[in-house]
Specification:
The chain has 465 residues and is mainly alpha-helical. It is built from 14 helices and 10 strands. The protein has a domain at 20-49 and 197-244 and 320-464.
């Protein structure tokens, strides 16, 4: 498979030390490059999606939410003049529907093979110019160094498009961000969309279980340089959704995405992100509860605001299930999981958690194989985006769950590669004066020291998930 060129500023790791340890690391990394030509990523797993449908064990009443939730997740928004529940796009936005960014391998997933955002550039008369980075995965840009009007680093999401010129946005005249300037000044970083499969389970894993797992095998973790810290919210809970665990629960996360990526206001975020005169074209918030849906002939699900229906859709999505082993030889994936555990991948990509009893009974007392500890880890200057969010420093990211990774197209937070072997190698990074070394370095070294067959089996195991 071809590797996607990294399109954001990538910090160069300092050269390896000339000490004996540095020479050993260099020799191991060098030998891995020779093996790389023979160990291959089998690519996106075929067969059934293994994700995307509603949980089959929810009640009949809960299943009744599926048509409304699915329709809302697939809803295409306009600025004005749409039917109720479709208005509110912009003034700044990146996409006009949830499913456009969360499509692979089914609604609720990650970036699809073909990036849908360029099709929105001039939709309905919009006068946006092209953006060079939307050519592979869907990428959401941030400017980590640009100073805002408070003389503080910006670091905020900058939606790709504006509604200027659209026939349903007359009177609004705002400009796109200067992406080309930001790129030339190395003041731009990216994040790609995360899949939301199984987030309904992740949402109510016990805080104590996450912290207990953090404190398990401490001596081994410390010997490998693995630390891992939780993102703690104001009420003491462990936050666990998003690239930097910036969200504790599904509903506020969905509301933020709706507001930032589509420009739709709601009871959670009732004001526009851009309040330029002439660009506030709807009554605010644009996505309130639907009080007009009354009477025996209307489903109660349509009383909910769109953001709540999107959240319910995500909450009821089934947990991903693995597929067959690439090549059809199950023993390869069985050995691959053994190697995954033996070299220490499992110390961050924790195999499973068991959720407690739930008010949605079918979701309680369920063991979910998420392959994540839901903690923040230092990944070093090579992977840093220089965005600080709560406890997450500029080089820290939450361990992304690996379930359904076999059908993921793009890897790493910025979608820099479509090759899972490159993604493993990109976990290695030597520290500098600004950031420490990646916590994954020892594990990557252990991977590089595996035999060719064990490496291939580990890759096959990942692609079976």
């Amino acid at each position: 498979m071809t590797q996607l060129k990294h399109r954001s500023k990538k910090y160069e790791c300092p050269p390896a030390s000339t000490t004996r340890l540095g020479l050993i690391v260099a020799m191991v990394l060098g030998s891995s490059l020779l093996l790389r030509a023979q160990v291959t990523d089998p690519g996106v797993r075929g067969g059934p999606a293994g994700a995307g449908g509603f949980q089959t064990t929810i009640t009949t009443e809960e299943q009744l939410s599926e048509p409304s939730g699915t329709a809302q997740f697939n809803q295409v928004y306009v600025v004005t003049k749409g039917v109720p529940g479709t208005n509110g796009l912009g003034p700044r936005f990146s996409s006009n529907s949830c499913v456009s960014c969360h499509a692979q391998p089914a609604p609720g997933g990650s970036s699809p093979f073909t990036n849908p955002l360029p099709a929105l550039q001039n939709l309905d008369g919009a006068t946006n110019g092209p953006v060079s980075f939307e050519t592979g995965p869907i990428l959401i840009p941030r400017f980590p160094y640009q100073v805002n009007n408070l003389n503080l680093p910006d670091g905020l999401i900058h939606p790709v498009w504006v509604v200027t010129g659209r026939s349903d946005a007359k009177g609004c005249n705002i400009q796109q961000p200067a992406f080309s300037t930001a790129q030339s000044e190395n003041d731009i970083v990216f994040r790609q969309p995360l899949p939301v499969f199984g987030d309904g389970y992740i949402e109510f894993i016990q805080n104590a279980d996450i912290l207990g797992n953090m404190n398990a095998n401490l001596a081994l973790k410390q010997s490998l340089g693995i630390i891992g810290i939780p993102q703690i919210t104001d009420d003491g809970s462990v936050s666990r959704l998003g690239w930097k665990s910036q969200w504790r629960a599904i509903l506020p996360a969905v509301a933020a995405e709706q507001n930032l990526e589509m420009g739709v206001t709601s009871d959670f975020f009732p004001t526009e992100t851009d309040q330029t005169a002439g660009c506030i074209l709807n009554g605010l918030p644009e996505d309130p509860l639907n009080y007009t849906y009354v009477g025996v002939n209307n489903t109660p699900w349509n009383f909910l605001a769109a953001v709540e229906r999107d959240a319910d859709f995500i909450r009821f999505l089934s947990a991903p299930v693995p597929g067959s082993c690439p090549g059809g030889v199950q023993s390869s994936c069985t050995n691959g999981q053994t190697q995954f555990n033996n070299i220490g991948c499992v110390l961050c990509h924790t195999t499973s958690f068991t959720v407690p009893a739930g008010s949605i009974p079918s979701m309680g007392h369920t063991t979910i194989n998420i392959f994540s500890d839901l903690l923040l880890h230092h990944m070093g200057p090579c992977d840093a985006d220089n965005i600080v969010q709560g406890a997450a420093q500029g080089d820290m990211f939450r361990t992304p769950p690996l379930w359904n990774v076999g059908q993921r197209i793009w890897f790493m937070h910025d979608g820099r590669t479509n090759n899972i072997i490159s993604a493993i190698e990109d976990h290695f990074c030597t520290g500098n004066s600004q950031y420490p070394s990646s916590e994954a370095n020892a594990v990557v070294n252990a991977y590089n020291a595996l035999s060719q067959q064990n490496q291939q089996d580990l890759i096959n195991f990942l692609r079976s998930l």
